[in-house]
């Protein structure tokens, strides 16, 4: 299936793109690729904005590697299409005719383009495309809800792991009879607002949304999805600690959703003894977290935010339906950046903190 | 206490070294510093092996920063000394007269050298030293057991967090009535052998020690601390998966103690659904773990190995006393590298996999 043999798909040079399915695979007829923003930017710059040259390179990458993975950025994107055939042992839970989006990166997805991308001018991350893609047994795909704008669904699904894992962690505290105080650093962002709603949904004793600037505090306050909203720079451990204390902390569960380096110490310091820190930010430094907790003699459980939890897409879409405040925050963000694209393999790498629509 | 105000001690330029104690502090009369190996090597190279120049620079660093933190490597080391005075609200659990070692890095520890390091030739990481150090409320110090060679105790304490956290994770499974299968990647190393003993001690259903070369397999097999020993290169996910399967896996708990990059995918793939991966290796890449699990649709809990768990030093020393196989592995290692020094802030960065004494 892969070259070189023995590596996992993301690291593989080239994927096998045979049309025929193994029993656990699914073939999708592709209608659109969403290139990862970092990848598209790199291609655009490399070709000085020459759309035809960008298109030619994307075609060449997909033809030679069997997948869309920018060799410079390493990233891919996601795709939308319709299920064409389902292997008899597939566990993906989709049937032929379902309109789906992939929740794993294009860097893991065998892809064949059949139309030479003739409907794409090479000037946008949104790539109309005819062709097919193969999802494996361990891939993840989600049905696109019919009652919601596709763009809204995709934006939610892009960060759905944060909601599901936050809910799971909070539920474990609740099951032990100790509903937790939950703090979300970067509570006004996409993953942050979903995490706040998930914490409340799962039975948190209270929720604290932590944001760096007044405007975000205003927006988050108006959305009504956090019990308390507080201002702090998460890179300043003592300042963060003080703000969280004043807001009702320390937190039993701290969720880090803000994508700036250097937030590990503050998150640890703001978390109660035997509490849990969930790091979703891709800017998290493993050594900074490990040595930071040790240096502070902090007995906290630190989780690497796994973007996959079974049922995560449905759960996050459900939160969007139930919490008007979450939906308003996503819609506000989409209105500000209507063409923003996503790569599940680059979840929180996109938006910077404070980059909320005015 | 710190400059600049608001940062945590490790990031501080300069620590306050006043002799007088705050109520939660402890003052230690220092007898020896163990410089971190990476730090000493850098100093030695920078001064072309001129011991007097190395000594002069260490004195200058400690005088100007109030702590021993190599400005190039960022690392410090640990110290041995005797408790001189204990603040009335200290929670460190030591009394005046106790011989102790610090379990937090020297980069966090206010230090004053009083003898100009006149007994040190600048040619070894072991630095005889007269002076004092201040331990804070959140520092960690451990009494050096009188019945064990000090070097052996220090080697164990250097990696004691791995034992205590492994035991905690295993105990949680046992408490739910599901004693886990535990795999330790790098089972023949210091933290790895302690983790294997801790897993058995905490009630694991079975333990699998995974090592990269036959010689380590022989040594680990002879020590008798793993139920099964298997050979695999942890950087090859499919090879590791196959080896763990053949050894009785997948594992409910996988502990990563081997300090090479690129082990994340294999560890995730070798772990059962709803299992737990504990990453102790400082070579762990946060994005590789997060995106790897997502890409594999692997519903596993991933922990950042926090080096601090209350009681960890006593627990690890207890394992050393109870498991002759653990002690033999540590002694073998010490015999091969008698001057190896350590920095709690660089735990697993020292020994490379496969670097076991012949």
Please state the average pLDDT score of chain A. 88
Q: How much helicity do the residues of chain A have?
A: 25-40%
Strand content of chain A: 15-25%
| Total number of helices of chain A | 11
Over the alpha carbons, how many angstroms does the gyration radius of chain A reach?
Answer: 21 Å
In order across it, which strands form the biggest sheet of chain A? 6-7-3-4-5-8
The dominant shape of chain A is globular
Q: What structural category arises from helix and sheet content of chain A?
A: alpha/beta
Unreliable residue runs of chain A: 338-358
Question: Count of DSSP E strands of chain A?
Answer: 14
Biggest sheet of chain A, in brief? 6 strands, antiparallel
Oligomer: homodimer
Biggest protein-protein contact in the assembly: A-B, 50 and 51 residues
Please report the distance between the alpha carbons of the first and last residues of chain A: 48 Å
Sequence of secondary-structure elements of chain A: EEEHHEEEEEHHEHEHEHEHEHEHH
Description:
The structure is a homodimer of 358-residue chains. The first copy, chain A, has 358 residues and is of the alpha/beta class. In chain A, 34% of the residues lie in helices and 22% in strands. The first copy, chain A, is built from 11 helices and 14 strands. In chain A, strands 6-7-3-4-5-8 form a 6-stranded antiparallel β-sheet. In chain A, strands 11-10-9-12-13-14 form a 6-stranded parallel β-sheet, with helices on both faces. In chain A, strand 9 (181-185), helix 5 (190-201) and strand 10 form a beta-alpha-beta unit. In chain A, helix 4 crosses helix 10, helix 5 (190-201) packs antiparallel against helix 11 and helix 10 crosses helix 11. Mean pLDDT of chain A is 88; it is low at 338-358. Chains A and B meet through helix 7, helix 9 and strand 14 of A and helix 7, helix 9 and strand 14 of B.
